[in-house]
Each structure stands twice: as structure tokens, then as C-alpha cells.
């Protein structure tokens, strides 16, 4: 059986290499009957049966529902408020008030009182033969 199959394959491959020429069949011996004079029946088109399931309706886009919370408004910068206290006025020098008490009178020096005791008696002066004047300051030792 396998040998027969192999033989067929080899035979077809050898024949397949030669070109194939078509030979028309011999003409029939009898001529065909003449066509009938009646026209052919008209062709009636019959549509195919409807599909079992109807096609889905066309897709309609639905937007998503709005968010539950609205987004915050955009941030707008506002400058800081002006200071509550105005700047201090420029410094004006004021002289100090006059003293409540008048100043004391100027100091006057008074000499010390004289001593109560009398000074000691003067020391006697000694004189030599040559008379020289001796000053009292030279006697102080």
C-alpha cells in the first residue's frame, strides 16, 4: 500500500514537469435543440433571513458625572496688610527741665581759727665773737 502511494507521487511529479495542454472535447454529434421562444422567468431576489440577534444600538458617549466637590478656586496673591502703627515721628531734642532746687552758693574758703595756745617762747640766739647775722630759718634743724 505504501509502495502504491509512493509510485503515484513519483508518477505525478514526472508528469507535472511537462506542460499541460487543454484539449477540447469533440463536438457533439447532435445539434442542440433550438432555444425556446418563451422568455426565461424573471429573477426574484430574496433577501437573506434576518440575523437571530439584533445588532447593538450605536454607541452614545456619556460624559462622566461631575465631581462631588468642586475644585478650589485659583490662588490669588494678596499683599500683606499695612502696619497698624505708624512710624514714630522724627526725634526732636528737648533740653532738660530746670532743676527744682537752686544750686548751692559758691564755696568760700575761710581760714582756720587761730590756735588757742600761745606759741612756745623763742629759742635764745647764741652769738660768737665774729658777729654774723644768723637767720632764723638756718636755725631750724
TrEMBL record:
It comes from the Eukaryota. PANTHER family: EXTENSIN DOMAIN-CONTAINING PROTEIN, PROLINE-RICH EXTENSIN-LIKE. Residues 1-16 form the signal peptide. Residues 127-141 have a biased composition (Polar residues). This is EXTENSIN-3. The keyword Signal applies. Residues 24-141 are annotated as: Disordered. Keywords: Signal. The keyword Signal applies. Residues 24-124 have a biased composition (Pro residues).
Amino acid at each position: 500500500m505504501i509502495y502504491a502511494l509512493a509510485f503515484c507521487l513519483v508518477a505525478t511529479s514526472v508528469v507535472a514537469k511537462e506542460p499541460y495542454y487543454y484539449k477540447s472535447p469533440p463536438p457533439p454529434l447532435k445539434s442542440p435543440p433550438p432555444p425556446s421562444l418563451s422568455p426565461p422567468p424573471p429573477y426574484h431576489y430574496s433577501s437573506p433571513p434576518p440575523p437571530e440577534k439584533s445588532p447593538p444600538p450605536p454607541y452614545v458617549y456619556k460624559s462622566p458625572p461631575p465631581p462631588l466637590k468642586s475644585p478650589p478656586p485659583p490662588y490669588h496673591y494678596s499683599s500683606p496688610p499695612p502696619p497698624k502703627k505708624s512710624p514714630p515721628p522724627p526725634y526732636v531734642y528737648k533740653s532738660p527741665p530746670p532743676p527744682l532746687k537752686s544750686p548751692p552758693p559758691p564755696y568760700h574758703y575761710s581760714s582756720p581759727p587761730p590756735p588757742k595756745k600761745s606759741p612756745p617762747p623763742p629759742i635764745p640766739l647764741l652769738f660768737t665773737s665774729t658777729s654774723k647775722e644768723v637767720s632764723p630759718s638756718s636755725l631750724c634743724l
